Amino acid sequence: MRTLILLRHGQSVWNAADRFAGWVDVPLSDVGREEAAGAGALLAKAGLLPDVVHTSLLRRAISTADIALDAAERHWIPVRRTWRLNERHYGALQGRLREEVRTRFGDERFMAWRRSYDVAPPPAGQGAVVDGELDVRYQHLGITVPATESLKDVLARLLPYWESAVCADLHAGRTVLLVAHGNVLRVLISHLEQIPRDAIRRIRVPTGEPIRYELTNSLRLKFVAERDCQHQPLQ
């Protein structure tokens, strides 16, 4: 069996404010830092000690991984980072309040942009909240920052990394902790569990709650023991 642990980053300051974040590099809130520490403590309590961690290039995922690993006394394990685990790029919606977008464009379009599989929000234009092409981390890697993404786009850029880097660690017998973002984990869960595309909208991934998967040697899903890692508030 191969063990995979998925962890959505703790609450960010824009989660708390109910803003679309996407590729904007917002930090964790105080609640998010507590969630990350709680997740690490739960991993240690359950004996789920990762051998390697994969994160996005965004600080809310990086900080969550660092805090959780420190709480689990696994701060020393190898870390692999990639833009392919970045949150979905929300285009022109980035930085905007969700309720503002819902009010302006209506429930149907709002939900299509948020939850449908192949509908992307309007692309980011001049004056968008963040111009990722000017960000040194993406310039250095030679990455063309998307102007917007659908969930279909997210899965397309995620799968090459999953099939090479993450699967390589799993095949090597390592317990893998993958710390990423809500939409990235939703499409990965849909891939692992072979959930139909029209049902992806029903997948919910709470912040700071580890999800455990046991995979066969062929990396097919054997069972999900999510209850073994239920998040509890710190005492």
TrEMBL record:
- Transmembrane ranges, per UniProt, are none
Q: What molecular function terms (GO) are annotated for this protein?
A: phosphoglycerate mutase activity
Which reactions does this protein catalyse? (2R)-2-phosphoglycerate = (2R)-3-phosphoglycerate
Q: What class of enzyme is it?
A: isomerase
Swiss-Prot/TrEMBL site (Transition state stabilizer) positions: 181
Q: Which GO annotations describe the biological process of this protein?
A: gluconeogenesis; glycolytic process
What keywords sit in the KW lines? Gluconeogenesis, Glycolysis, Isomerase
Alphabetical list of SMART domains matching this protein: PGAM
Metabolic or biological pathway: Carbohydrate degradation; glycolysis; pyruvate from D-glyceraldehyde 3-phosphate: step 3/5
UniProt-annotated catalytic positions: 9 (tele-phosphohistidine intermediate), 87 (proton donor/acceptor)
Quick one: which residues bind substrate?
8-15, 60, 87-90, 114-115, 182-183
Q: Which Pfam families match?
A: His_Phos_1
Q: Which family does it belong to?
A: Belongs to the phosphoglycerate mutase family. BPG-dependent PGAM subfamily.
| Cited function | Catalyzes the interconversion of 2-phosphoglycerate and 3-phosphoglycerate.
| Protein name listed in UniProt | 2,3-bisphosphoglycerate-dependent phosphoglycerate mutase
